[in-house]
Structure formats: structure tokens, C-alpha cells
Amino acid sequence: MSLKKDIKEKKSSVKKSTAKKSAGYSKKNESHTDESESDHDEIKASKKVSQRLDNSRLYSPDDPEMAEMIKKEIIKLERRRTVLVAIFALLAFTSIGYFIFYYANIDSSEKRMQEIAGLVGSTALSGQDGTATANIVNPDNPDAPPILEQYQTIYNSNKRLIGWLKIDDTNIDYPVMQCDDNEFYLSHNFDSEEDKAGAIFLDCNCDVLKKNDNMIIYGHHLTSGRMFSQLGDYEKQSFFEKHQYIQFDTIYEQRLYQVMFAFRSKVYNEDDVVFKYYQFINANSEEEFNSYMLEMNDKSFYETGVWAFYGDELLTLSTCDYHEDNGRFVVVAKRVK
After folding, report:
1. pTM of this structure
2. What pLDDT is attached to residue 133?
3. Which long-range contacts (CB under 8 A, 24 or more apart) does 103-107 make?
4. Cα 217 to Cα 229: distance, rounded to the nearest angstrom
5. Strand, coil or helix: what is 27?
6. Which of 179, 204, 206, 320 is catalytic?
7. How confident is the model over 125-160, as pLDDT tens digits?
8. How many CB atoms lie within 10 A of CB 133?
9. Catalytic annotation on 179?
10. What is the pLDDT of residues 65-88, one digit of tens each?
11. Does 186 lie in the same domain as 325?
12. CA nearest to 137, candidates 200, 185, 202, 183
């Protein structure tokens, strides 16, 4: 019994000793962890202080190197600002100069048109016999009729004159030119001078002597309101009702047309299978003519009550329209006199 008691006491003593050592080790670990965290915090604080010191040195006004760097950067920024101001000033002056030139040119062109209009009915430049003759499309035709007296003076000023177009109570009151292509008068005026406003001109494929099913006249749409700008007003039926008639005199005879259709179209690709009003000059048959009429009627903004039949003579006025790329605004009329 005594031996068992001794063994039991020794085991109990070993357990207590182990427990004390474990407790001591745990306390050491806790102490070590606390010390590590404390050291880490001190390092962070030291870095912050160091960074503040560096920053204070970086932005210190007493640092000559830094002051020189700042000075250089300021000079660079000032130069950039100066360059930008100069560029914007140049753009502004260029734009102002362009508009001054543009409107001065418009004013000059308008005055010239007024001078030309003043020659209608004048005999200042007419031939001695008073019956100058012309055949612009067919120069070898000996049967060309005499030019109307009121256009003889203007014709002698420029023998590419083919007629005169006028719509009452509008700005449309211009000589109509014609040459062997549809490009020249897009950028040249009555005097054959380069002019962005161009001139009003008859399609080169039309023949005022042979009389086509449809005569097509082109003109620019200008922001100034000149040339064919007012054609766009035909989008409103109220405008049509007050401006139903168009006078287009050729240099050989007086003509009057009544508006039938007003619509928007465009210049299509060559392979597009659609109605292309700018290709309608002569119909190959009555059926084709009627088909063109239906196409234009479907496109028209409103019903005018005016209709044409095969054998009637049509007049088409065409100008640019900015509702879409390559857009066109078109007014079609029928000859009534």
C-alpha cells in the first residue's frame, strides 16, 4: 500500500510541474506577441515621421533644386497655355475671316445678279439687227429661232444662257445656264468665274429646241437664302397654294408651269433599282411616263390636284437637302402655257 501511495504522489507532482511549465511558456508567448506588435507599431510610426520629413524637404522653399524644378514646370505650363491661346485665336480669326469673305462674296454675287436682271428687256448689247440667234445644245442647227428680244442683251453677255427662271414673291429670279456637263456651274457663276454659289443651270442632256418630256434645272441650297434655298418651302402646302406657278422662259419662247409635286429624294448608287428622278428626261413609252408620275405622286408631301399625261411637258427643279446624305429636294411642275 505504501508503494502505491508513493507512485501516485510522484505522478501528481509531475503533472503539477508540467502545468506550471506550460503556463510559463504561454505567458512568455503572450509577452513576445505583445512586444512584436509594439515593435511593428513603432516602425510604422517611424516611417510616417520619416515620410513627413521627406515631404517637408520636397516642398521646402529653401531647397534650390526643388525651386528650380517648380520654376521649369511653371514655364512649361505657361508655354502650353500661350500656344493654346494662339491656336484658338488663329481659329477664331480664320473663322471670322472666312465668314467675312463668304458673305462679302455673296453680297457681290447678289449685286451682279441684280445687274444681270436689270438687263432683261435691255437692248444695250443686242445685235445690230436686233435678232441674235443661238443654239447652244445643237450648234449646227440652222433652224434655230430668233432669241426673244428681252434676253438678247444678256445672251450677248454670255452665250451659254439658255433661259430665265422666276417664281413670283420669292428670291428665285435667275438666268439659267447650260453647258456640256453638269459640273461646271456647280462652282462657277454667270460670268464663268469661280463661285461657291455656282449658277442655276439646265441639265446638259436637255434640249430646249427638241422639247423633252421633262426639263431638269439644278441650283444650290445656300444658307444665305439665295439660289434654290426657298424651294424647301414647298414642303408646306400653304406655300404651294400661294406659289403654284413657275415661269421658265427659254431664250426662244415664254413658258409657264404649274406645280404638281414636291418631295424629298436622294442621289442613289448606280446599282440601286429605284426611281431616280434625275434620270427622267424622256420616257420611252406612255406606260413608263405614267409609272414616273405615280412614283412622284407617292413621294409628294400633299395632293395638289394637278396631273400630267403622256405628251405633257414637265419641269423639275432640284436642290440639295440636308435631311440625309446626298439628299435632294425636288419640285415638279407641268407646262400650262
Report:
1. 0.67
2. 47
3. 103/224, 105/195, 105/196, 105/197, 106/197, 106/222, 106/224, 106/226
4. 14
5. helix
6. 320
7. 444 444 444 444 434 456 778 999 999 999 999 999
8. 17
9. no
10. 777 777 778 888 888 888 888 787
11. yes
12. 202
Domain span holding position 202: 159-335
Distance between CA 110 and CA 177 in Å, rounded? 17
State how many domains the chain has: 2
Whichever domain contains 309, its CATH number is: 2.40.260.10
Phi then psi dihedrals of residue 85, to 5 deg: -60, -40
Specify if 260 maps to a domain: yes
Does 149 reside within a domain?
A: no
Domain-located, residue 14:
no
Better-scored residue on pLDDT, 200 or 85: 200
11-63 pLDDT tens trace: 555 455 555 544 454 444 444 455 555 556 666 655 655 555 455 554 555 67
Contact (CB, 8 A) for 130 and 149: yes
Name the grid cell of 246. 413657275
Please indicate, yes or no, if residue 132 is contained in any of the structural domains: no
211 or 275, greater pLDDT: 275
Secondary structure of 89-157 in the HEC alphabet?
HHHHHHHHHHHHHHHHHHHHHHHHHHHHHCCCCCCCCCCCCCCCECCCCCCCCCCCCECCHHHHHHHHH
Q: Which residues of 222-234 are buried (b: 16+ CB within 10 A; e: fewer)?
A: beeebbbbbbbbb
> Cβ(251)–Cβ(151) under 8 Å?
yes
Residue ending a domain, among 102, 117, 132, is: 117
Q: Do 268 and 168 lie in a common domain?
A: yes
The CA distance from 54 to 60, in Å, is: 10
